Amino acid sequence: MSRKNRNFHLVALALILSLASVAMGQENPTGEPVALKASANTRNVLDGQKFKVKGIVIKSNADSFTLREPDGTETVVTLTDNTKIKAAKKNWFRQYKAAGPSSILRGLRLEAEGRGNEAGELVAAKIRFDEDDFRTAQALEARVDPVEAMATSTKVLAEANEQRITSAEQNAERLSGQVTELSATAAAANDAAGRAQASADRAQASADRAQADANNASDRINAMDDYELSETFIVHFRTGSAVLSASAKAQIDAAASKVQNENLKGWVIEITGYADSRGNTVGNRSLSDRRADAVINYLVTTYNLPLRRLVQPFGYGEQNPVADNATGEGRALNRRVEIKVLVSKGLSSQAGV
């Protein structure tokens, strides 16, 4: 065969192969239905349908891979033990040599031919690719895998950080709730303490009042036999006489009115008699006793005062003078009976409460 004819046949062969590649994926000449797209980017190959597809591998594992066509349509291709995988040099003669599933790398441009299964995947019977495309995919994988690993690691780290942040936020929320609860408990405790303190203050005040009352009662009891002078009435006598004059009786009447009309509490009357310095001591002592008795008799007979309120009368004679006995005026003042109205301190203070 001449060189010219051989070139012609080679060109014709290339044209036929080109037309075949263009026809790939179009309606089957035998009338079989074409593969349908299940969605905008995924192809669903009908069960049992014979189909051929060409594109770039975007995902790959031991049993299958995903092939993306130039228009973005993706087809899942399944490998079996009967799948024949071959690589060819890029020349006119397309000399193929056997390859394995490990040769199907991401980024590899290839052609797959087979039939659909129930899952809408293409079960490959044949897979073909060029060695140059395989070397390009290897170089791509060598660059992409580390970046992808780093991205995966970064994603894992980001997810871990997100989990830690979420956990920290949850812990912070729990702590916030605990702080709020503790604050409420502390506020309630403070309120309770305040109420308890107020109760304690009231109890202390009551105790203080009770103690004061007890002290007052004790003081009154102790002062029952302690008397204080309310008023003194003076009854004068003539020289050597124990007879009550009109003016003397008027003084005694005033003393009786004091204890009867003023409603005194715990009163007693103390009566003491006196004489001037003329005469002897014994006579003066006797005279002062008679003068005191005269006043007592008048009070009892005239006003019926109880004897228990009348202190035993006593005569001092010329003792305890209130004036100078050297003069007549002084001696007149010394001839006297003193009527002292005394009131018990304990009873008088109780009456004033």
Q: Would you kindly provide a written description of the structure presented here, covering whatever features stand out?
A:
The chain has about 350 residues and is an alpha+beta fold. The chain has helices spanning about 5-25, 130-220, 245-260, 280-305, 330-335, 345-350; strands spanning about 35, 45, 50-60, 65-70, 75-80, 85-90, 95-100, 110-115, 120-130, 225-235, 265-275, 315, 335-345. Among the domains are: about 35-140, Copper binding periplasmic protein CusF (OB fold (Dihydrolipoamide Acetyltransferase, E2P), Beta Barrel), CATH 2.40.50; about 225-350, 2-Layer Sandwich (60s Ribosomal Protein L30, Chain: A), CATH 3.30.1330.60. Helix 2 (about 130-220) packs across helix 6 and helix 3 (about 245-260) packs across helix 4 (about 280-305). The termini are far apart.
Please supply descriptive tags for the structure shown above:
353 residues, five-stranded mixed β-barrel, four-stranded mixed sheet, 60s Ribosomal Protein L30, Chain: A, OB fold (Dihydrolipoamide Acetyltransferase, E2P), rod-shaped, 6 helices, alpha+beta, 47% helix
SSE inventory with pairings:
Blueprint: H1 3-23, E1 36-37, E2 43-44, E3 50-60, E4 64-68, E5 74-78, E6 84-88, E7 96-99, E8 109-116, E9 122-130, H2 131-222, E10 227-236, H3 246-261, E11 267-273, H4 281-303, E12 314-315, H5 328-334, E13 336-344, H6 345-351
